[in-house]
Amino acid sequence: MAGQEPEVVIEVAGVSKTFSLSGGSGSLKSRVLERLTGRHKKQVFKALDDVSFTVRRGETLGIIGANGAGKSTLLALLTGTLFPSSGRIRTTGQISSLLELGAGFHPDLTGRENVYLYGAIMGMSRSHMDARFDAIVDFAGLHAFIDQPVKHYSSGMYVRLGFAVAVEVNPDILLIDEVLAVGDSAFQRKCLDKMRAFRREQKTMLIISHDLQTIQRISDRIVLLDKGRLLGSGSPAEMIGEYEGLVRQTESRAVKREWGTGEVRLEEVCLTRHDGTVADAFDAVDGFCVEIGYRAQERVEEPVFGYAISDAEGHLLHGSNTQLAGVEIPVVDGTGRLTLSLGALPLTPGNYLLSCSVHSADHRVNYHRLDHAFAFGIRGQNSSAGPVHVPVQWKWGGRPV
Amino acid sequence: MLETIRAIWMRRELLGILVIRNLKIRYKGSVLGFFWSLLSPALLIVIYGVFAAILRFNAGRPHYLEFLVSGIVVWQFLGMCLNDSLHVVLGNANLVKKTAFPRFILPISMVLANLVNFLLTLLVLVVYLLFAGMPLLGFYLIPVVLLLQMMLCLGLACILSTSNVFMRDTEHILGIGSLAWFFLSPVFYPIQMQLEFLPEHLGWLPFLNPMAGILYAYRTLMMGALMPDTHAVPGWWLLVSVAVCLVVFGLGYFVFQRAQRAFGDVL
Fold it and tell me: Which CATH number goes with the domain that contains A289?
């Protein structure tokens, strides 16, 4: 970028946050008892562990990570509703935030009263809020309900009003936790338009979302959190790739199973691109290779090597073996290698699992099976539902569309 | 402290909204609404008047009813603040969890809402005292006493609201504690009943209870020489109460500001 970079508006330096699990609101009795019996060692949970990053003015930062990674804790610390256990947070400018689907609305107050309450919390004058009130109601699309107590609102209405008011108070920094997950698609589009307008005005945004496609599109940069630690910070595509890898690992760990009698063992299984580079995500049109290294403890005649591809839940989508393919392996003894090359895959983008096996020709003895052991990702344009991609063409009125 | 005052001044709109919300909730669903703030002290005076006459509470003291009613009205302001303080933070959990603002606004808004109520009650009381022929000579000094009482209420509200966040026993302790405090304070008996038990050089001891000084000051300002308390009270005894008010306020402020950082963790 030419010239100097915009100033840092958010600085998070070595921030950790621990919560006491024993619960702070214990009764006097239990506290005194704990003291007397010497059992007052606090159980603590580290929600954030030594996290550091900075955000410059005008930047849109996405925050991704699995549930419990510390994303919401981080936004609460930036908002100022929680305070770090150690480390330092410095922010410049007015911050407006929408934490976990609510702007701190009071259920008994009407939508109108809550809008003014939120404005007052943000330090807006009444006349300022008067000027913006119609825009807020318009945006939320709540004309008929604005004088109803918000406890009668549906969750969608609640979030709509929350987003509308958080945006319309015109903050310098906007923090949003998972608004994209709720609301109908029309409202989501409105939100995204608003966020883009925000970006054009050189405002700073921090967004948490599990909708990876959207967050990739709207963010300039993404930070990846895992179990309270900052795993990385970088370009959206790069970080989302890393996050998907992380998800694949955890997913495959859940359904993974290894078993067999052990006469022949699959010692090494490696997924590569056709040029031989190791990878765990591939373009559907390219396909990939599987390099298998095996070791036979003794002489084994006519072993059959098999593989299977299943979806992330472990449902079989495709499978075959050397026997079905007509590849004859008369005998194995000692170590050896085998290469399986898969062409273009008719799969939609997502995460899949590869299983490998070696068994006897009559399928009676399973020497070694690695079920759902290898997770891989498929990239491409998502244009159909379900795991299988079929090239289609529509005709309407006799003409191709 | 100065910074807190500045931060609160910046959020004065919020303070206003919270005070009005406190008042609205109090009269929510009632037909007479705000009118109750005037009606209930008036009825209180009538009831005490009737029963004091029947039960001969006054024990021969002149102007005992005026003395009793003014004490009860002043005590009520404190009592309401104490009760409301339990919910100052807990009752605003959604705000505290989701938004950032100077938390000190919460106890202030509660005390101010009760102040509005107290001023209306005071209005009724003044009308009654005028009818009863009280001099009300020092009335212009009432705001000073009122300010001290508000500082006491605010300090205690800070301590109780914080305590109730971390320890729900606070509610039960407060119930018993405030009853004991009520009887320890010269609300329906004159301070001289306590002073008679003490040697002259320890006469300042009862004024360690800040309400002793506050009640004495209100009544002196409203009833003047007609007050049934005949025991001489040197000015510096009252200063003991003033000092305690200031200490409680300072302590409450300190405790609240220290603890408020952890509110989000526990709520």
Answer: 2.70.50.60
Is A305 among the domain residues?
yes
Domain count, chain A: 1
CA distance A233 to chain B (A): 27
- Judge whether A312 lies within some domain: yes
Residues 84-123 of A with CB under 8 A from B: 95, 97, 99-100, 102-109, 113, 116-121, 123
**pLDDT tens profile A105-116:** 888 888 998 899
What would the pLDDT profile of A63-100 be if each residue is shown by its tens digit?
Answer: 998 888 899 899 999 999 999 999 999 999 889 888 76
- Give pLDDT tens digits for B15-67: 999 999 888 888 777 777 778 888 888 898 889 888 877 877 666 678 888 88
- Residue B128 confidence (pLDDT): 92
Domain containing A292 equals 257-379
pLDDT score at A186: 82
| Ordered alpha helix ranges (H), A141-289 | 155-168, 185-200, 212-218, 236-255
Q: What was the pLDDT predicted at A1?
A: 47
Any CB–CB contact under 8 A between B177 and chain A? no
CA distance B46 to chain A (A): 36
Q: Cα separation of A138 and B75, whole Å?
A: 49
CB contact under 8 A, B11 and A80: no
